[in-house]
Design a protein that fits this description.
Largest sheet: 8 strands, mixed
Radius of gyration: 20 Å
Strand order of the largest sheet: 1-2-4-3-5-6-7-8
Distance between the termini: 84 Å
Structural class: alpha/beta
Shape: globular
């Protein structure tokens, strides 16, 4: 057999194998199929035993939010996707929190008490369906790479819609926290008076490698396939930016929350973001809180920290 043909065949096989593995990684980590809409009476909460003790409270929050009057908004992303949000008004002219949920989540699942928490500190809430979730479009989650650009689009919309005097706070949980932190590395209008980041990761690379290790796979070998899958099939670079790098350029006050018992996004990742932050900052860690449970476990401590950090100018009275 011609050795050149043999070598060519081996090379073609290896290329095909690399492309196939990269595609499988893309489908597992980033791709979202558009699921059939769940029945309207179903209330989702995050999966896992740590959330079960809080199920009644989360379901109650969700039902309360569903019963509130609200206004629906839709904008278009930089790459042409429809992005949806629900606005809940605390009082006319109140500061508005732009709220972003986490990875493969939804506003109701990941932010069940978000609107109530906003109302408790005198703020309205614009709760956003991230791309690939709820009524928003798209098929690829990008770990904040494209999502932070969506956040910037929502900021522009909010200023235009609510007026030049509106005060905005960018809020996120889990990947949503990393999303708003990445957005804060860009020039933001004076309307943005602060950032609230709850249990965010410092970079897509680090959180993906952490998950790979939990799966018992070698990160040094596996991560390049994940990165290649994102580039080839999702069209984005996982290392284009990160929350940690964005914090070095941040000029807005940032309050970080993180549960000390978080075994999904380690608490140290918020510590890394906190240390990198060049602006006014505060880190609040909640003993015993798992992923995304800081407010559920310690609501009064959470609210007190928010009031102290942002001050009365970030609240409104009815």
């Amino acid at each position: 057999m011609n050795p050149f043909l043999l070598l060519g065949g081996i090379a073609a096989f290896l290329v095909a194998a690399v492309l196939l593995i990269a595609y499988i990684c893309y489908r597992m980590a980033f791709y979202v199929s558009r699921k059939t809409k769940a029945p309207s009476d179903v209330i989702e909460i995050p999966e896992g035993e740590i959330y079960e003790p809080f199920r009644p409270k989360m379901e109650e929050w969700a039902r309360q939010t569903r019963a509130l009057p609200h206004e629906e908004f839709e904008i278009t992303s930089f790459d042409g996707l429809p992005l949806h949000g629900n606005f809940y008004e605390y009082a006319p002219g109140a500061p508005v929190e732009l709220m972003f949920h986490g990875y493969r989540g939804s506003a109701e699942r990941d932010l069940p008490g978000g609107v109530q928490r906003c109302f408790a500190v005198g703020r309205s809430a614009l709760v956003v369906d991230q791309r690939c979730s709820g009524k928003s479009g798209g098929h690829a989650i990008t770990f904040g790479i494209y999502e932070h650009r969506d956040c910037l689009a929502w900021v522009d919309f909010a200023v235009k819609h609510f007026g030049p005097d509106v005060k905005l706070i960018l809020t996120g949980i889990s990947m949503g926290a990393s999303t708003v932190l990445m957005a804060a590395g860009n020039p933001l209008p004076e309307n943005v008076i602060g950032i609230l980041a709850d249990c965010g990761f410092n970079s897509a690379k680090d959180i993906i490698k952490k998950v790979i290790r939990q799966l018992g796979l070698p990160p040094k070998i596996s991560y390049p396939f994940v990165k290649l899958g994102a580039r080839l099939y999702g069209g984005f670079d996982l290392e284009e930016t990160s929350a940690e790098e964005a914090m070095k350029k941040c000029t807005k006050p940032v309050i970080f929350f993180h549960g000390e018992s978080d075994d999904f996004v380690p608490c140290d990742m918020s510590r890394i973001n906190y240390e990198a932050c060049a602006a006014k900052k505060r880190l609040v860690t909640i003993p015993g809180a798992g992923h995304g449970l800081s407010y559920a476990i310690a609501p009064e401590a959470y609210l007190t920290a928010l009031r102290e950090f942002f001050g009365p100018e970030a609240s409104a009275q009815k």
